[in-house]
Amino acid sequence: MLDPHPDLTSGVIYGLGWLYLLLFLLNVGWTRRSYRQDGHLHLPDLFGGTEFPAATLWATYSVVLLMLALAHLTGFSTPEGFLIRMPVFARQMIDSVLADARFFFLLSVVLFALMIIWRRWLLKPTVAWCLFNLAVLFMTLSLTDYDFRQIVGKPDNVPIVGMLYIVGFFTWLYFSRAVENDDRIAKGLPKVEEENNEKVLVWPDLVYTELICMVVLTVVLVGWGIALQAPLEEPASSVKTPNPSKAPWYFLGLQEMLVYFDPWLAGVVFPSVILVGLMAIPYIDFNPKGNGYYTFNERKFAIITFMFGFLPLWIGMIILGTFLRGPNWNIFGIYEYWDVHKLELLNNVNLSEWFWLSMLNTGMPMPGPEDSGLVQTGKILLRESPGLILVLVYLIALPPLMAVTIFRKFFFRLGFLRYMVFSNLVLMMAALPIKMVLRWTVNLKYLVAIPEWFFNI
Amino acid sequence: MAAKKLTTEEILARARAQVGSGSGSTPSADDTSSAPEPAADSPAAESEAAEPAASPSEGTPAAAGKKTPASTADILAMARAQKKGGAAAKPAAASAEKPAASAKPAGAGKTPTSTSDILARARAQAKGGAAPAAAKPAAAAAKPAAKKPAAAGAAGERPTVAEMVKAVRSDAPAPAAKPAGPVTPPLPSRRPPVVQKKEPQQSRRGFLRSTVGLLASPFAAAWILFSGATMAATLGLARYMMPNVLVEPPTTFKIGPPGDYPPGVVSTKWKAQFGIWVVQTVYEGENIIYALSTVCTHLGCTPNWLEGEQKFKCPCHGSGFYINGINFEGPAPRPLERYGIRLAEDGMLEVNKSVKFQQELGQWEDAASFVSVV
């Protein structure tokens, strides 16, 4: 019987063979580097205590890759019997973690924290190379899954996969520069950027680099344009919405915010706050260090705050929106079939409903049509008072509270006005993960829900 | 200008000009002069033409061919010259001779006339004069003086090469010591300054005439045309905003008898055409038919009716609505809206999309928002 959704096809196996071959060649180069630089490893005395070059391990690994490549390149004619594929239990395990937004977010935050704590260790070339290999192997193995290929191979999404690798590389690059400078500062040596900065090499160094970049970019764009078809769909109709209906990848973070907030908040206020907040950074920042050179230790708070906003909140939301959101905007695992009828119970409750109905067991004070305008307003405000008080406390009482506790130093350095701007920006930023977590954990819909005035928080 | 150190590119350009100058470019020598103007910026193409012109003026008296080559550069230059053939040999050899030539006047103490001369001499002194191995830069340095004329030659009114040579000879007694530099040829005659005519007293007629003249000038005409065209385009755009035909579905339309809509069923047959769902269900203890808007109350996408789950589900942000339109999941803050509906006189249901009824405002109580079914 012919499977309409085969995990493996001849074309996939053949393509993966070339991918393994490429990875093999890269690792041959790495083996050569390792042989020259990595030195020797000691076997424990139990096994004889002999010494051998560390490159032996890489050579073995490379040989395994070559055999994988050959197996793929020769065995592609019988895809049904081909054994090298992602094991089912691994797929289920990964799906069960990723398909739950709480775990996904927790994972991204934990990875973010580990990245900062272990930055020194992650920067070692061998570790970085291992991570790169793992990332590529995860990709090649995952590509043996039909549903994963459907998501990743969509012309819309291919560049996002590339972007993830690029984000990883540049984060690594930043840390490698920053840690080197931090070490130099600790030893009292000049920073990397301060050495040899007497002259800037323009010709041919810079100009050739630019030329090469230009040529490579053009080649990539042309190749992209030829290889991937434009994701065109049926003619637009105002009553037919594609399911799932996804924004362009760079707006998926916004789209994800819209799931948790009212449109005017997630679509207008927050983007404006993000833009204005980024513009305000130079005026808020009182730390003169880190200008013109990479560093981490000298401005930990600024860098961690920015990176948290960028990596788990922005890139993480793009990943969530691209690879995990499926039909009806439900969350699916990366190997899960996009079932339109997947049932996800999301009976969300507003804070006011929970407060009046569940906690006090009384009716909600609803404005009646016969009430006068003033009475209606009073009733609405009373109904939403728990949420309103909470929001006001969050935005008005927390800044002074933080000023005398965790942000003491900031308050003295910034002065009242600048501190207020700063603390409100931080609170606004924190509002997103807080609201997301509340939605995922206790199904909270809105803290303040006043649909009568189009005002929901 | 020549006041900078020579860049690699310039030196290369000159070297190429030196090599490339063959017999073919000799005729152009007649047109050129050796006015001592700084002209280091001239492209290689110009210097190719200039090179042979400069060479005879300096090299001919020096009996270039006889001299033993002193440095690698000299040998190379000579070899190249030999390869090119008889006609080329002379200028090339002459140019190889230049370091020596250009080095000399620096010692002779002749007053330099321009910045480029001073620089050329300084360089010649520093490099060519001290070590013959550095002959090439010096030769190149001597050249700026000879280069510009190729460009200027077209202007005419300049001394010919013969005149130049003559002037050079009469100026300096030592025949070998001649970079083209210090020679000061007569400046081209300048255009006499425009004498401002005295403005005549403005008369009324003169004023009118000048106004008409201003309006008729090509500049004014162009501006008038441009403004006119812009205005026409704007008007055209304004007209474009009001289409001749506006295809909009009628806001009031019949959707058939109530019997077409059995209880508990969401009819999606008018979704594409009119953007409504017609539903018969029990709402607040009453069996009614109503028309729901297909616009999600969150951000305006079109939800889908999922029969199996008995809910409307929006594909954009996951809002969910019960069959009666009440929101219960996702971010939608309020229920779907109802349109006006009534039982027309002919027994058909008639939907009126020009009015809408919102539950959160208590408008679903309005009798115009549903039709009761017995």
Can you give keywords for this protein?
heterodimer, A: 457 residues, mainly alpha, two-stranded antiparallel ribbon, 17 helices, 4 strands, 2% strand, B: 374 residues, alpha+beta, Rieske Iron-sulfur Protein, 2 domains
Walkthrough of the structure:
The complex is a heterodimer of chains A (457) and B (374). Chain A has 457 residues and is an all-alpha fold. Chain A folds into three domains: 85 residues; 218 residues, no CATH class; 106 residues, no CATH class. Helices cover 64% and strands 2% of the residues of chain A. Chain A has 17 helices and four strands. In chain A, α11 packs antiparallel against α17. The longest helix of chain A is centred in the middle third of the chain and has 30 residues. The radius of gyration of chain A is 27 Å and the shape is globular. Chain A starts with 9 loop residues before the first helix and ends with a strand. The model of chain A has no long low-confidence stretch (mean pLDDT 89). Chain B has 374 residues and is of the alpha+beta class. Chain B has two domains: 164 residues, no CATH class; 121 residues, Rieske [2Fe-2S] iron-sulphur domain (Rieske Iron-sulfur Protein, 3-layer Sandwich), CATH 2.102.10.10. Chain B has eleven helices and eleven strands. In chain B, strands 1, 2, 3, 4, 9, 10 and 11 form a seven-stranded antiparallel β-sheet that branches. In chain B, strands 5-6-7-8 form a four-stranded antiparallel β-sheet, with no helix packed on it. In chain B, a hairpin with a 5-residue loop joins β9 and β10. In chain B, α2 packs across α4 and α2 crosses α7. About 28% of the residues of chain B have low confidence. The interface between A and B is medium-sized, with 37 and 30 residues.
Helix content of chain A: 55-70%
State mean pLDDT of chain B (0 to 100 scale): 70
Percent range for β-strand residues of chain B: 5-15%
Number of helices of chain A: 17
Largest sheet of chain A: 2 strands, antiparallel
- What is the beta-strand fraction of chain A? under 5%
The strand order across the widest sheet of chain A is 1-2
The helix-strand sequence of chain A is: HEEHHHHHHHHHHHHHHHHEE
Number of domains of chain A: 3
Radius of gyration of chain A: 27 Å
Q: Unreliable runs of chain A, pLDDT <50, ≥5 residues?
A: none
Q: For the record, give the distance between the C-alpha atoms at the N and C termini of chain A, rounded to a whole number.
A: 53 Å
**SSE order of chain B, one letter for each helix or strand:** HHHHHHHHHHEEHEEEEEEEEE
Tell me which protein chains meet in the greatest interface and how many residues each side has.
A-B, 37 and 30 residues
> Low-confidence runs of chain B (pLDDT<50, min 5 residues)?
22-67, 86-110, 129-156, 174-178
What shape does the CA trace of chain A take?
Answer: globular
